[in-house]
Structure formats: C-alpha cells, structure tokens
Amino acid sequence: VQLVESGGGLAQPGGSLRLSCAASGFRFSSYSMSWVRRAPGKGLEWVSSIASDGSTTHYVDSVKGRFTISQDNAKNTLYLQMNSLKPEDTGMYYCAAVFAYYSRGLYADDYNYWGQGTQVTVSS
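Below the sequence we write its predicted structure tokens.
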C-alpha cells in the first residue's frame, strides 16, 4: 500500500498550490480519503474529506471557500486545490485513507493508511 503526496512547495500569501496523492495497493474507490495537516509545533488538524464516490465533501471552517478536494477514481488520485493561501496554511500536508463510504476522522487512528506528507509553506 502506498500513498504518495506531491505538489507542495513555497507560495506567497494569496497564491495557489495543487496537492496530489497517488494511491496504490488498495481499492481506492472503496475508501474515503482525507487531507490532514500539521502546522509547525502543533498537532494534526483535519482539513477535508471526500466520500469514496466523490459525492460528499467537507472542510474545516478555516479553509472553506478556498480549498477544494477532489479525486479521480480512474487514476487512483486525490487532489487538494488550495487558493488564496494564508501563512497559517503552512504545514505538512498528509493524505489518508479509511475503509468506509465516508469518514472525516480527526485522529491518526481513524485512518487505515497514510502518506509521507508534502510540505506547504506560505510566506512572502
């Protein structure tokens, strides 16, 4: 099983980044996927989740209207489009999978699989 994130980097406030998470080794279409982040010196923060069929999505209040989660089940890939980035969006972003139609787990143990993370830094 692998979840490989990419797309992180340095962005200016107000800028955009698109994160990708390539999944392999499990039936992607049977899993609810999420993005979770960890800011420097802080704990894990759930960011967004999407149902296994892509029909349902939710976001933490701080990113609503700025971030969009999506997936391509044909490519086994999860995405996070991040617009209007703010310095407080800085952190390591992880994708995570749980064997369920839809779940937005708040804790590490809520998920079956995790990626290694991709760093997002928002700074001028």
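The chain is about 0% helix and 50% strand.
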